[in-house]
Amino acid sequence: MTTARAHTNIALIKYWGKRDAALMLPYTSSVSLTLADFYTDTTVVFDPALPADTFTLADQVRPTTKVTPFLDLVRAQAGLTTRARVRSVNHVPTAAGLASSASAYAALALAASRAAGLTLDAQALSRLARRGSGSATRSLFGGLSVWHRGHDDATSFAEALPATTLPLRMVVVLVNAGPKPVSSRALMANTVATSPYYPAWVTHNEAAAAAMIQALAANDFPAIGHLTEQSAMQMHAAIMAADPAFTYFEPETLTVWQTVQALRAQGVPAYATMDAGPNVKILTLAPHVDAVQAALLPRFAGRLMTTAPGPAAHILEDQ
Amino acid sequence: MTTARAHTNIALIKYWGKRDAALMLPYTSSVSLTLADFYTDTTVVFDPALPADTFTLADQVRPTTKVTPFLDLVRAQAGLTTRARVRSVNHVPTAAGLASSASAYAALALAASRAAGLTLDAQALSRLARRGSGSATRSLFGGLSVWHRGHDDATSFAEALPATTLPLRMVVVLVNAGPKPVSSRALMANTVATSPYYPAWVTHNEAAAAAMIQALAANDFPAIGHLTEQSAMQMHAAIMAADPAFTYFEPETLTVWQTVQALRAQGVPAYATMDAGPNVKILTLAPHVDAVQAALLPRFAGRLMTTAPGPAAHILEDQ
Hints:
2 copies of one chain form a homodimer.
Chain A: E1 2-13, E2 18-20, E3 25-26, E4 30-46, E5 54-57, E6 60-61, H1 67-78, E7 84-91, H2 101-115, H3 122-132, E8 144-147, E9 158-160, E10 168-173, H4 184-194, H5 198-217, H6 221-240, H7 251-265, E11 270-274, E12 280-285, H8 289-300, E13 304-307, E14 314-318
Parallel strand pairs in A: 5-7
Antiparallel strand pairs in A: 1-4, 1-14, 2-3, 4-7, 4-8, 5-6, 8-9, 10-12, 10-13, 11-12
């Protein structure tokens, strides 16, 4: 029985679009920050007495339609046929709207592989997690990581980037905690298929990933922030230009972005990024967290969470 | 002394980006609807006693920095050196946020050329108006018109499209009547220079203009509406992807768009378009105006104006 913890991550340079849906190979490389306060704990035990896999999330029985194909990958690597019991708990503040498949599949990859007797290195774990959810490939790593798009299963993996000396912080603004109106997987495929801007997105975002790695190495926060906001807006612009036109943005998403732009105009280094939903994550530095929070409190009291970079996925218990 | 009236127009297939700023040649063709209830009346008299051009807007004296270079074009064509008195009044509901250079330069082109003794045909007038403001080139025409991008001064002009049998209506939703935070001319140039999506915009929008002309000829309102909304969103997506990222959308812009999407889900044919500002124009058909207004009234009472297609620019008085 093995319990693993993996933290969610927020892409600074976005991942949007698969060129191989079965292998989960992306069109572009991405760069992300793993977060301290949002994680998933998952326990896996392979038990010969089980007739089928079981899966609970926060002690609620859930379908195994996604978990079993993932466990099958682990079983194939380990030469096992035994079924497994999987128990997951998402440690995300109630209704944060951030419960993500990234931390879920990263924790499952680590717990299941170890429980199956495998000892996978970070690269192999990252490739395994990728098969569950693209963004999970980055959640094996703490702090900053890059997911190299690669060209096949063996070459598409994430790895940790050197730590920055910058005291990065992320202020999460909860705009809407409800379920997504459109699944990111379906919308991603529609963007690839119909957005006239998708080819330019691929070219430009790949160059942005390289520029971000340089900016991080140089501890150049204005460049890091600028690239972060540009990548998010270019992803959302590619989505908006698809057929049918659509946006994850809600009115308050723009309210937060306007606030971030006003903060910058006042000299506060803060940059907005949004994923497949209306919530906004604001990248800033520790000395400026108070200013960012103060600007948002009048409207978003009770809907702000500030977090720091988080650790790599790790084993909590192995017996 | 000649007085002319020209109505504003709303592009269904957008114009965004100049390949020649001096000649006002656009990168793409555009298709528009001229509106009945929004127009400019302009009176021009060439007076040998005047030492310099004068310009009043709603009886307020205004700078002639833009008017004089435009009048110089007319004087050059007419072989005149006389200065002119120009009086304009915008007939746009108070604070509608729609006071546009389109109707202004179309009315000025018609009044000034006639007052100078020129008799220009529609194509020549359209080319003249273009030099004042790109969108003015379409405001010489009533109902539907197309501005052919052309490849030089002689070939870039608008002309009327055949009238549709559809009872087109436009519901204008006033989100913000204040001045634009960013001039459209400056932002247009920045989109061309920095948006990675601009080349795809050009290719795609040009094809959309051709598709729109076909849809209009077929009186196919779902296709007309769909193309209208796509062109607007692709224009705003190209802007959002520029550097720095920016959007004219305000929170309520998205509120209106969400309402339009909900109306369509209920079977009401309504499509949103936005220009270089936060206000939303909803294209629908006469039988559905009540449903569109009813959906918006709870939030936008006093900020809705419904209008029908308007006439071509015409002379009101010539003495």
